[in-house]
Write a structure and sequence with these properties.
With 231 residues, this protein is of the alpha/beta class. It contains seven helices and eleven strands. It holds the Pfam family IspD.
């Protein structure tokens, strides 16, 4: 059986949040957002080990106030992040110890705390079968392609999905995709885009509209509402 490793980048600076410090440590119901996220992976039976990625100067804080404070025993290491999210993920992939090419990696945003164990299990199953899979949801609104302030195209809505995380891959495939992107100086929009760039198929797993990425103050209002609903 392939082992399953979680890689959770939490190295963003969170400038859009305007909180004065990094968004992953904002308190949500008295607990840092990233701690809510890690707890899902800690409690999921399908996850064998967790690697966190943090700004280098924040690693001691992350270790004491997240990993140790909440007893996240599956966390194997906290890895220094890079200038962009893609660089942070690449650092994390290179830091995973003892991983085999056919083992699986679930890459998940540290500020998506409403991921569920069911999403993790579905992602693992899909990546095990096909090599690469992402969680996504169909768009609700009509999307316009705009050039120079003018609508150029209206894509068929039934073909458009919003990418979320986790994004799950066989380690050998995603490591090769990241290595090639780094060598070419290419920055993708997400990890799946690096696989697409190589012509590799990526399966889509139906996610949930509550699986939001907390980026703005408005997202915090939504997150607090979701938490109240769960209680």
């Amino acid at each position: 059986m392939a082992r399953v490793f979680a890689l959770i980048p939490a190295a963003g600076m969170g400038k859009r949040m305007g909180a004065g410090y990094n968004k992953q440590y904002l308190a949500l119901d008295g607990m840092p957002i990233v701690a809510h996220t890690v707890r899902v992976f800690q409690e999921a039976a399908c996850i064998d080990a967790i690697y966190l990625v943090s700004p280098e100067q924040e690693i001691p804080f992350c270790r004491s106030e997240v990993v140790e404070r909440y007893g996240f025993t599956k966390v194997r290491a906290i890895v220094p992040g890079g200038a962009e999210r893609q660089h942070s993920v690449h650092n994390g992939l290179r830091a995973i110890e003892g991983i085999a090419p056919d083992d699986l990696v679930l890459i998940h945003d540290g500020v998506r705390p409403f991921v569920t164990a069911a999403m993790l299990e579905a992602s693992v199953a899909a990546a095990q079968a096909s090599g690469a899979a992402i969680v996504a949801v169909p768009v609700k609104d009509t999307v316009k392609v705009v050039r120079d302030g003018v609508i150029a195209e209206t894509p068929a809505r039934e073909q458009l999905w919003l990418a979320q995380t986790p994004q799950a891959f066989r380690y050998g495939l995603i490591r090769a995709a990241h290595d090639e992107a780094a060598a070419d100086g290419f920055l993708g929009t997400d990890d799946a885009s690096l696989m697409e760039r190589q012509g590799k198929p990526v399966q889509v797993v139906r996610g949930d509209y509550t699986n939001i990425k907390i980026t703005t103050p408005e997202d915090m209002i939504l997150a607090e509402a979701f938490l109240k609903e769960k209680k």
